[in-house]
Amino acid sequence: MVTSLNQAVGVQGSSMNTDNIGCPLCQNGESGHYHKDRQRDYRQCVTCQLVFVTAQYQLSEADEKAVYDDHQNSPIDMGYRQFLARLADPLIERLPAQSQGLDFGCGPGPTLSVMMEEAGHRVALFDLYYANKPEVLERQYDFITATEVIEHLASPGVELARLWSLLKPKGYLGIMTKQVKDKEAFANWHYKSDATHISFFSRETFDYLGVLWGSAPLFIGADVIIFQK
Ligand SMILES: [Zn+2]
After folding, report:
1. What is this structure's pTM?
2. Is the confidence at residue 77, as pLDDT, over 70?
3. Neighbours of ion ligand 1 (CB under 5 A)
4. Which one of 12, 27, 143, 202 is most buried, by most CB atoms within 10 A?
């Protein structure tokens, strides 16, 4: 069955064997087999092109946190700062002075927030494991950052809709994640070998979100995406 939304956006599902495993981003897409490796099966949504693994391949919260505990980043790590500057710099260029932001998924060693504060902005932190303060998700912000976060989301549709709702008009959503190119590149992609990576976005997926939100994504380099509300 092809859903009416698929038809509306002109997606052809016929070249792919699809079934009704729902997409965790757009919910109403059918998905088809995309890739299989020794660890997992990967599916791709015919509507938003998200590549994802089903729940059976998702780690428990305890196992997931154990992996994150192993990745200790910190603001004194210059290499990590340089990595984050790929998002921080273009965001700082665009923000009015003294903007209020949220670093969503800040991890155990918040660093981007330190860099944004050094540039004169204020930043609230949220992280499911390291800064679980639901009250910060009850106000609106001039900017929200999510660096190396959305590839970990089991329900990216719900989480991204929430982040978008937390932005003030004209606010910026800055995302950093590696992007799917094609099946051939995916087969040898180190990014998919991390068991905590379960949602893989591509340019087409961000374009889908852009249509949904009425805001064309700005792609900066290979892994930075900025939306303005
Ligand atoms: Zn989808």
Report:
1. 0.89
2. yes
3. 23, 25-26, 29, 45, 47-48, 50
4. 143
